[in-house]
């Protein structure tokens, strides 16, 4: 509106006001250019912030050499990392394709006298979960023993469980298990071990805990 008024004065022949109007237009154009530049800078900063936030979110996800393959194989559905975060520990274990033996062991299917479902779903825990290949590597005689030796099976299973939810940021170090013994967690980046067993994919969040898929069955100290 200000610029339009000056143009009207120019039309009726007031030269001085016309000159002033031209100067004002130049000033306004400069301001507009400055505003556009500021808007571009703001937009660029916002994009950089979004990219940074996305990178941080990605970095905060599960880590391990097998995570990419797991996510690719389970992009959606109950086994996806996203949906596992809404499930209890035992529900999540039951939906992870490579934890069928562990699921049987904690739910009374391996040994009817050992059922830890209520315990694991009733608190906050970190679980170092041996995958099926880890159990398959055990001596078959050991598996047969676990089917009847309730004390031995309970000790082994609870030795894989640590009270509290330990994310990848705070899992390193000596951790005391529910069984009473300790496990040593070491590593950085994508490479972690638990008592020497490799973490395939760790830091998977569930509704009441954090799961680390490992390639070995841990044995409690005698």
Topology at a glance:
Blueprint: H1 2-11, H2 15-59, H3 67-73, H4 81-84, H5 89-95, H6 100-106, H7 117-121, E1 125-130, H8 132-136, H9 140-146, H10 150-158, E2 161-163, E3 173-176, E4 182-188, E5 191-194, E6 197-205, E7 209-214
Helix pairs in contact: 1-2, 5-6
Which labels suit this protein?
FAS1 domain; 7-stranded mixed beta sheet; 10 helices; 7 strands; 48% helix; 18% strand
Question: Can you describe this structure in just a few lines?
Answer:
The chain has 222 residues and is of the alpha+beta class. It has ten helices and seven strands. Strand 4 and strand 5 (191-194) form a beta hairpin.
Write up this protein.
A hairpin with a 5-residue loop joins β3 (173-176) and β4 (182-188). The chain has a 7-stranded mixed sheet with strand order 2-1-7-6-5-4-3. It has a domain at 66-214: Roll (FAS1 domain). It has helices spanning 2-11, 15-59, 67-73, 81-84, 89-95, 100-106, 117-121, 132-136, 140-146, 150-158; strands at 125-130, 161-163, 173-176, 182-188, 191-194, 197-205, 209-214. It is of the alpha+beta class.
Please give the count of helices.
Answer: 10
- Strand elements, count: 7
Output the strand order for the largest sheet: 2-1-7-6-5-4-3
Mean pLDDT: 82
What name is given to the CATH topology of the domain at 66-214? Answer: FAS1 domain
> Percent of residues in helical segments?
40-55%
Main sheet overview: 7 strands, mixed
Q: What's the SSE pattern?
A: HHHHHHHEHHHEEEEEE
The CATH architecture of the domain at 66-214: Roll
Oligomeric state of the chains in view: single chain
Radius of gyration: 31 Å
CATH superfamily of the domain at 66-214: FAS1 domain
CATH class of the domain at 66-214: Mainly Beta
Termini Cα gap: 88 Å
Poorly predicted regions are 1-28, 36-59
Keywords: Lipoprotein, Signal
Organism: Rhodococcus coprophilus
Region (Disordered): 29-59
Signal peptide: 1-23
């Amino acid at each position: 509106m200000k610029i339009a008024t000056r143009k009207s004065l120019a039309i009726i022949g007031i030269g001085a006001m016309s000159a002033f109007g031209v100067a004002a237009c130049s000033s306004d154009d400069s301001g507009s250019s400055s505003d556009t530049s500021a808007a571009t800078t703001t937009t660029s900063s916002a994009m950089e912030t979004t990219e940074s936030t996305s990178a941080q979110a990605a970095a905060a996800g599960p880590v391990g050499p097998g995570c990419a393959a797991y996510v690719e194989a389970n992009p959606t559905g109950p086994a996806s990392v996203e949906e596992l975060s809404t499930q209890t520990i035992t529900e999540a274990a039951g939906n992870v394709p490579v934890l069928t033996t562990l699921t049987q062991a904690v739910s009374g299917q391996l040994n009817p006298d050992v059922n830890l479902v209520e315990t694991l779903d009733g608190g906050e825990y970190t679980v170092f979960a041996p995958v099926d290949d880890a159990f398959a590597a055990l001596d078959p005689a050991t598996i047969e023993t676990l089917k009847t030796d309730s004390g031995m099976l309970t000790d082994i299973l609870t030795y894989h469980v640590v009270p509290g939810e330990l994310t990848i940021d705070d899992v390193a170090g000596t951790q005391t298990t529910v069984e009473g013994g300790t496990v040593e967690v070491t590593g950085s980046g994508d490479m972690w071990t638990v008592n020497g067993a490799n973490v395939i994919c760790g830091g998977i969040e569930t509704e009441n805990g954090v799961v680390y898929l490992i390639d070995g069955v841990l044995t409690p100290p005698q």
